Amino acid sequence: MEVKVDPKRVLVTGGSGLVGKAIERIVIEEGGAREGEEWIFLSSKDADLTNAAQTRAIFEKHRPTHVIHLAAMVGGLFRHLRQNLDFWRQNVAINDNVLHTAHEFGVVKVVSCLSTCIFPDKTTYPIDETMIHNGPPHWSNSGYAYAKRMVDVHNRACFQQYGRRYTAIIPTNIFGPHDNFSIEDGHVLPALVHKAYKAKLTGTPLEVCGSGSGLRQFIYSLDLARLYLWVLREYDEVEPIILSVGEEDEITIKDVTDAIVEAFEFTGPVVYDTSKSDGQMKKTASNAKLRRYRPDFTFTPFRTAVKETCDWFSANHDRARK
Fold it and tell me: Among residues 3, 56, 170, 261, which is most buried (max CB within 10 A)?
């Protein structure tokens, strides 16, 4: 008996970024697409999603049935400190345009990407999906955090009013190939990768901002991509889900630095500049909900993933975002 496969046209916003490229690798290079699925990866060159008319035009062109929403204004701690208002305004505009246009075009499912920085600064640990709105986020990136929280507000209201099952994932710190390796504006791990690469090349010390004592959970972009596909296809809740390694895998920034030093075989001195901010000292997240659904999922070992990321950056230095 022949099984009918419903066509699924998946539009990926932010398709040229870290997570978008990881999903593209899984569905195209590694054959992760299923029968009946068509995948469309957008970049900022295709449309300005802060513009409602351009957002509508891109939906009119591709007529997606499903959307993976990754497009955002993003950056590391020091960019947030400089541009808090820009992070708020641009991300609110992007998210409202994408989610509202998806509803207007009858998109069956949207899976947006949030961040653990949306959680309250003053909280108990570990944080979980029920705690998003329990208090203000850390002041250092409040514009971005509040804009991302509004995605959850939008999703719940859209379900209440129209029955749409739009949801969101909440990853911990993502890293991998195709990241933004900017020393000034990148997140901590890719910025350190770039710093270590330059320090080895020039024979200078590797300088790390802060004390190195801040704690973080890291998820490799390819692991996140595989979990993202599972959420798109099988996760049916409107409530968001944290996608992360476990609490026991939380590590310090010094541990991250050591892994990068090992991957590059860097032998020079490492200097911690304690005059620079550590940012939020910890934001330990629980992956208990994920484990209830996917007890079998195996994460790439951290040092293996760091080595692959460093090797990719070395091989693609000239074209990497930095």
Answer: 170
Contacts of 31 (CB under 8 A, 6+ apart): none
- The structure tokens listed for 147 are 């804009």
- Among candidates 206, 190, 210, which has minimal Cα distance to 198? 206
Residue type, 299: F
Distance of CA 50 to the CA centre of its chain: 19
Q: Which of 202, 206, 205 is nearest to 193 (CA)?
A: 206
Instruction: Tokens 């060159």: give the residue.
Output: 45
Angle of CA points 251, 256, 259, to nearest 5° = 120
Active site residues: 144
78 — phi, psi (to 5°)?
-75, -30
List, for the chain, all residue ranges whose pLDDT scores fall below the cut of 50.
1-5
According to the model, what pLDDT value does residue 255 have? 96
The total number of residues written for the chain in this structure? 322
First to last CA, the chain: 53
Distance between CA 200 and CA 223 in Å, rounded? 29
pLDDT tens readout for residues 168-181 = 999 999 999 999 99
In whole angstroms, what is the distance from residue 224 CA to residue 105 CA?
27
Question: What does R_g of the chain's alpha carbons equal in angstroms?
Answer: 19
Instruction: Tell which residue, 31, 29, 39, 41, has the closest CA to residue 8.
Output: 39
> Coil, strand or helix: which one is 169?
strand
In sequence order, what are the beta bridge partners of 174? 219
Q: Is the C-alpha dihedral spanning 10, 12, 16, 19 positive or negative? A: negative
Q: What is the DSSP letter of 321?
A: B
Residue pair 234/313 in contact (Cβ under 8 Å)? The answer is: no
| Tokens describing residue 157 | 């209201």
Q: Are 221 and 179 in contact (CB under 8 A)?
A: yes
* Contacts for 309 with CB less than 8 Å, ≥ 6 apart: 175, 176, 177, 179, 189, 190, 193, 220, 263
